[in-house]
């Protein structure tokens, strides 16, 4: 049941392998990249307790020794102090220019370890072993690495492509249902932005995927990664098309900021709600059919996901404050906010031409529920 997606980036091309049992086969997959049989693994304490022994055994089976540093789990780890600790630890492990750093974990670890690899000795290679659904379908692929600054998320970083990604779909069963569904928000995003047939498939197969159907999980991760790989190959550094991957994210980032990047709203939950709002905005602007936003919302609801602003626990700021938060989005270019809107399910596009009144009306209605 193993699939391989190639990210076509010339001299920096690499494979994303997807399927069950990849942790056990990690040694044979990584061995061809190594000059000497040892790797340094960066992970977090939660993932280490669940999966580090399996990775160690998988590496040992191919004669590869492993040394590991487990950082605290959580977004706060994507910061200078933990980054400094990781880089100093890699130097103390005498990781050389030709060695490999392995990132075992979700998006936080993948982003931090990738950035550490980008700057260590002016750049060493790294392998992503993503353990969350969100990391498997999004953050482990495409080479965006970095940490957060006090001024905002992901403001310090580098493009540094991994040399290999191993997405073991067995590890998804160790996720809480909430974390799995949050990652599913990014999966739905791919169907909505560029593949209506995939969205239809998700409408039929999403519930089985959520309850553990391995074939459905492999297929959903594979299709998501294929779509991301195609977009990244066209526009590695986000000069154009790569912004499509931010469907739902302008609303999402405002909602995440409004909820203090807390447990009240996980990133993937915000993406799902944001996709619904982006379709609502597109319908109001006459770009897509009136039925499209309802269909998006119906699928999210059928999956038991957050759909509306009222599904976010606690008070939210008013519409003006949410719009002010949207104006701080990273996609602001020359003072103009770019939105990802849609001409229908599977047909997203990037535009700067969005009347503020329409955005205000969508948020007002969403707040009223
Ligand atoms: N997560 C969006 C991107 O990789 O461009």
Outline:
The protein is α/β, with parallel strands linked by helices.
Question: What can you see in these coordinates?
Answer:
This protein is of the alpha/beta class and 369 residues long. It has 2 domains: 3-174, 3-Layer(aba) Sandwich (Rossmann fold), CATH 3.40.50.1970; 177-368, Dehydroquinate synthase-like, alpha domain (Up-down Bundle), CATH 1.20.1090.10. 46% of the residues lie in helices and 18% in strands. It contains 13 helices and 13 strands. It has helices spanning 26-30, 45-60, 80-92, 107-119, 133-139, 177-194, 196-210, 214-234, 249-258, 267-284, 291-302, 319-326, 356-368, and strands at 3-7, 14-19, 38-44, 65-71, 100-105, 125-130, 144-149, 152-159, 164-168, 332-333, 336-337, 339-342, 348-351. The chain has a 7-stranded mixed β-sheet. A two-stranded antiparallel ribbon has the order 7-8. A two-stranded antiparallel sheet has the order 10-11. Helix 5 packs parallel to helix 6 (177-194), helix 10 runs antiparallel to helix 11 (291-302) and helix 10 crosses helix 13. The protein is globular, with a radius of gyration of 20 Å. The model has no long low-confidence stretch (mean pLDDT 95). The structure holds glycine (GLY). Glycine (GLY) binds next to loops.
């Amino acid at each position: 049941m193993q699939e391989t997606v190639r990210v076509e980036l010339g001299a920096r091309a690499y494979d994303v392998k997807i399927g069950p049992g990849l942790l056990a086969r990690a040694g044979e997959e990584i061995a061809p990249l190594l000059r000497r049989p040892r790797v340094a693994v960066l992970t977090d304490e939660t993932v280490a307790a669940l999966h580090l022994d399996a990775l160690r055994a998988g590496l040992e089976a191919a004669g590869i020794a492993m040394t590991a540093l487990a950082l605290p789990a959580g977004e706060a780890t994507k910061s200078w102090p933990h980054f400094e600790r990781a880089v100093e630890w890699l130097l103390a492990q005498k990781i050389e220019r030709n060695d490999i750093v392995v990132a075992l974990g979700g998006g936080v670890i993948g982003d931090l370890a990738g950035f550490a690899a980008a700057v260590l000795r002016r750049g060493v290679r790294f392998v992503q072993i993503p353990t969350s659904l969100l990391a498997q379908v999004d953050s482990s692929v495409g080479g965006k690495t970095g940490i957060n600054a006090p001024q905002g998320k992901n403001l310090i970083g580098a493009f540094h492509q991994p040399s290999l990604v191993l997405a073991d779909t067995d590890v998804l069963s160790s996720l809480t249902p909430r974390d799995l569904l949050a990652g599913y928000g990014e999966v739905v995003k791919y169907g909505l932005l560029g593949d209506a047939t995939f969205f239809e498939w998700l409408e039929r197969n999403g519930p089985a995927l959520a309850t553990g159907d391995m074939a459905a999980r492999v297929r959903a991760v594979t299709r998501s990664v294929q779509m991301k790989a195609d977009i990244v190959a066209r526009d590695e550094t986000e000069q154009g098309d790569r912004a499509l991957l931010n469907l739902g994210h302008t609303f999402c980032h405002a909602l995440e900021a409004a909820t203090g990047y807390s447990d009240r709203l996980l990133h993937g939950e915000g993406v799902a709600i944001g996709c619904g709002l982006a379709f609502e905005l597109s319908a109001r602007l006459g770009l897509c059919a009136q039925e499209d936003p309802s269909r998006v919302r119906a699928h999210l609801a059928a999956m038991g996901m957050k759909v509306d602003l009222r599904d976010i626990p606690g008070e939210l700021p008013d519409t003006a404050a949410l719009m002010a938060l949207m104006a701080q989005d990273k996609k602001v270019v020359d003072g103009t906010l770019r939105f990802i809107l849609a001409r229908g399910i599977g047909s997203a596009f990037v535009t700067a031409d969005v009347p503020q009144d329409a955005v205000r009306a969508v948020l007002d209605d969403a707040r009223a529920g």
